[in-house]
Amino acid sequence: MSKVKSGETPHYELLYIISNKFSEDEVKPIIEKVNSFILNNQGKITLAEDLGKKRLAYPIKGFRYGYYFLTEFDLTGESLINVDRALRMMNEVLRHQIITKTVKTAEQIAQDKKIAEKIAARNIKEEKEIKEKIKETDKEKVDLKDLDEKLDKILETNDLL
């Protein structure tokens, strides 16, 4: 079930991987081809992001690396089937995934940002506490010179045997 009001076009996110047998210059026309599938089906691209070349979790069609791309777009459900079919037929695309995405309001984005800042502040505080604990344990450790002196005293005694 999507949370799209009637009359609104659903918002989708497409993540796809292009095989690394292509150079970065050869990848650009492939991206344009994928974007044209969306645009030719009366879609509207809202975000296109290059996530870079990454190692795959497991080999796909013999490839260990791939170029990752993320595209967000608005498109009707009937046209989405055509885009999905076209992506399946492309030999250049190793894998793709299309998911329904809810569009966040400005308030939700601001709220998410505040939460991220709180988490970052908490992590910094925890790191400081850990560093202080490490310093305290370092102070409690016995110096090597003290250990050597104690060992010498023990060895000097005749009560060992």
Verbal overview:
It is a single chain. By secondary structure, the protein is an alpha+beta fold. The chain has 2 domains: 90 residues, Ribosomal protein S6/Translation elongation factor EF1B (Alpha-Beta Plaits); 48 residues. 48% of the residues lie in helices and 29% in strands. The protein contains 4 helices and 4 strands, in the order E-H-E-E-H-E-H-H. The protein has a 4-stranded antiparallel sheet with strand order 2-3-1-4, with helices on one face. Strand 2 and strand 3 form a beta hairpin. The longest helix has 35 residues. The chain starts with 10 loop residues before the first strand and ends in a 5-residue tail after the last helix. The mean pLDDT is 85.
Which second-level CATH architecture of the largest domain applies?
2-Layer Sandwich
The radius of gyration computed from the alpha-carbon positions, rounded to a whole number of angstroms, is 29 Å
Any idea what the shape is? elongated
CATH class category label of the largest domain: Alpha Beta
- Stated plainly, the CATH topology of the largest domain is called Alpha-Beta Plaits
Mean pLDDT: 85
Tally of individual helices: 4
- Please trace the helix and strand order, writing H or E for each element: EHEEHEHH
- Count of individual beta strands: 4
Number of individual domains:
2
CATH homologous superfamily annotation of the largest domain? Ribosomal protein S6/Translation elongation factor EF1B
Strand order of the largest sheet: 2-3-1-4
Blueprint of the fold:
Blueprint: E1 11-19, H1 24-40, E2 44-60, E3 63-74, H2 77-89, E4 93-100, H3 106-140, H4 144-156
Antiparallel strand pairs: 1-3, 1-4, 2-3
